[in-house]
Write a structure and sequence with these properties.
405 residues, binds iron/sulfur cluster, ten-stranded mixed sheet, TIM Barrel, 3 domains, elongated, DNA polymerase, domain 1, alpha/beta
Amino acid sequence: MNRGIGWIFVADECVFDTFPIVGVFFEAHRKVFAMGGSLFAGCLFSFFAVQSRGKFLCSVFFCYLCGMEALLGKNIEELRVVAQAVGLPKFAATQLAEWIYKKGATSFEQMTNISLAGRKALAEHYTLGMSEPVSVAESTDGTKKYIFVVGGGLRIESAYIPDGDRATLCISSQAGCKMGCKFCFTGRGGYHGDLTVAEILNQICSLPEREKITNVVLMGMGEPLDNPDNVMRALEVMTSAWGFGWSPTRVTLSTVGVIPNLRRFLDESQVHLAVSLHNPFSDQRKEIMPVEKAFPIRDVVALLKEYDFTHQRRVSFEYIVLKNTNDTPEHIKELCRLLDGLKCRINLIRFHAIPDSPYVSPDSEKMIRFRDTLTKKGIMTTIRASRGEDIKAACGLLSGEAGRK
Ligand code: SF4
């Protein structure tokens, strides 16, 4: 993501309108700052900016100019380096990780078991990397859609889905998506950038319901395995003892099947996997999922058959049912052939209509028949309840209204 441009958008709206001359000289200033002779100029700028429009945006802008790094997303080794860099003992890394990942600290001042001098030094050189959602919409079924602004000045969305004792958070891994699946609104909007590790984790850390989350699914905007380094690090933070300390079974990553990164994910993580299947016939899948040309579903399934899913780790296949398109007896037969020998389940999802789409949602009876036939043939199949459709938080609807601020 182009951070330079991104922050110009943020600054453009909050500061440059008050100080237009600053916008003109922005790039020149940034270069001076980047060369390291800028702290004084940065302070001066921030001072004027704070006078005009509030501390938060300006301090974010100042952090950018001075290149302050976020601690959110760093692993324990990297936090050790941070601790040493600001003159703290190595064990302070464990304290930092605890404050950030377990206690949900939102400022360095809260870290009371770290010396005052240490906290001051941390605040001078780093940010925590948290930023609250800018808006929320609530569905009649209790689902909430949160919008976060990320570094490119773009809006990304997360869906919080409470359900009895469980509360699932669906998070995004990219702003937009390159994959262009025909049934998905996110895909239609194109790709705008990868989320950083901090931006992925911030959707959890800055969620007002953070303490209630029981499960996280990476099924929001973007293809997680198209942003593999940041996604794998985010999974490491979620499942490491020094991080959130969650069991990997609380997390599910959904992918269209980017094979090289899928192998890496299967080797390096134990979290559950959901594969977007949607059609077992290659020529038909190509029509709705261009990724089939590069990574055919039969190759994805062949790769999965090399791994063991008979214990804790689960693999499931997502299947958006499109009326008279992928819901015939031939599709059922081919699905059984394709998945033969793999312990898995299929989740049927009713298609959620998007504007100008040729696809139509099936009726409930057809969905139930489809489910029952697959189950009789030995594939455990469920119908996923649609949640948050009225606020466009349901599957395939995220990002419809997202875009630049
Ligand atoms: S379904 Fe997923 S992979 Fe396909 S376009 Fe939408 S966000 Fe991207």
